[in-house]
Design a protein that fits this description.
20% of the residues lie in helices and 35% in strands. The chain contains 9 helices and 19 strands. The chain has a 12-stranded mixed sheet, sandwiched between helices. A 7-stranded mixed sheet has the order 14-13-17-16-15-18-19, covered by helices on one side. The chain is globular. The relative contact order is 0.13.
């Protein structure tokens, strides 16, 4: 199996020389020096070169940004204040407000961080620019170093001209997650983390992130402005964030009689309006959605128990492109038995259909109207849907 994490480490071979001579005791001492140093300061700045690939992605994406952080242990959202400067976008948080600035059109959107915690940052790729180890004063790699279930490999290396101690952690496999690895490089002169890497495989698909830090500095004089007054005045367009205004104009309820697609690995056209039965179950899924996969056995059971009682069941995928994701889909169906027909829908239809979370299971009546919905994974999925159907069949 080819590991992209290896390629990411090899990326540094023009800068690195591996020797594997360090002892765990020496490494633990270095980690403690790194943790102790950062705890002496309340602010930090750095330039981050980020590479990342999610399970469902075919290509690696890259972003570079300048980051400034100010620790505040009383802050329950992020653990402190920050400003992230990308080429065309800025994001900043001052403890009360959070802003998104679009530089090309000089616009800024201001949100109340307490009403919308995590807005724009949490659960997005932008969260990778945050150094929560600094903000929340965590123990860093010490936790893994002291865990006997984790294999460690040590190396002497050079990152961007800095002599570093490299530490590679190999975590035990867990369920369908395998080959999970963390790599961190701490320089031996100033005790700063210069590079990090995380990689994991899930059913043959890899997700990884690589962080390369440059221009790192610690300070006790943060340069994060209050998001008001002079700062706001530098932008020409100003608007307040609202969860309503951030969405497209109110979307009409989708007419599921219009749902079309094609059965997986077939050239036929599928039209839901051609299905004439009492109820139709639509289970919305995609290949790298772990909760979707956990729900498949329950949907299989619904299919087996109700297919002869006037209930049709389909698995609807509007995320994976059948052509671009051919290899991933083949691996998915090899690993996950889906007894009911999978239907591939053009990803361009996703916004119109309006499903926002996965998995989502819908039960439609004979007029293609939604009469039951389960949003997210539930251990009781079969029992809940079966109870609904049993009172109506």
């Amino acid at each position: 199996m080819k590991h992209t994490w290896s390629a990411l480490i090899i990326f540094f071979t023009c800068l690195c020389s591996f020797t594997f001579l360090s002892s765990q005791g020496n490494v633990l001492e270095l980690v403690e020096k790194s943790v102790n140093k950062r705890s002496q300061y309340e602010s930090m700045s750095y330039t981050l070169d980020l590479q990342f690939k999610m399970f469902h992605m075919e290509d690696t994406l890259t972003q570079t940004g300048q980051v400034e952080l100010k620790r505040n242990l009383n802050d329950t959202i992020y653990g402190g204040l920050f400003i992230i400067k990308l080429d065309t976008l800025w994001y900043a948080y001052d403890g009360n407000q959070i802003v998104e600035a679009v530089l090309p059109d000089s616009s800024i959107t201001i949100g109340d961080a307490h009403q919308h915690p995590g807005l724009w940052i949490k659960s997005t790729w932008l969260d990778n620019f945050m150094d929560y180890g600094f903000l929340k004063m965590t123990a860093g790699p010490k936790v893994f170093l002291n865990d006997d279930s984790i294999t460690k490999e040590f190396s002497d290396t050079v990152i961007a001209g800095w002599p570093c101690q490299g530490i590679l952690f190999k975590l035990p496999d867990h369920e369908d997650f395998s080959d999970q690895r963390f790599f961190v490089a701490i320089d031996t002169l100033e005790y700063m983390v210069r590079s990090r890497m995380h990689s994991v495989f899930y059913q043959g698909n890899e997700q990884y992130t690589n962080w390369l830090y440059t221009q790192i500095s610690y300070d006790n004089k943060p340069n994060i402005p209050k998001l008001e007054g002079d700062f706001i005045a530098t932008f020409k367009k100003l608007k307040q964030y609202s969860s309503v205004s951030s969405m497209p104009e109110e979307q009409p309820v989708y007419d599921y009689a219009q749902l079309t697609g094609k059965p997986y690995n077939a050239d036929d056209i599928f039209q839901l309006v051609d299905i004439k039965t009492n109820f139709i179950i639509l289970d919305f899924w995609y290949t790298s959605c772990y909760p979707c996969i956990k729900g498949i056995p329950s949907v299989n059971r619904l299919y087996r128990d109700y297919k002869d009682k006037g209930v049709a069941v389909y698995g609807v995928n509007m995320i994976d492109d059948e052509v671009k994701s051919k290899a991933r889909l083949e691996k998915f169906f090899k690993n996950n038995l889906m007894e009911y027909p999978p239907i591939m829908v053009d990803p361009a239809m996703a916004n119109e259909i309006g499903i926002r979370s996965f998995p989502t299971l819908l039960v439609l009546d004979k007029d293609y109207q939604i009469v039951y919905m389960e949003d997210g994974f539930s251990e009781q999925l079969y029992e809940k849907v079966a109870a609904f159907l049993d009172t109506r069949l």
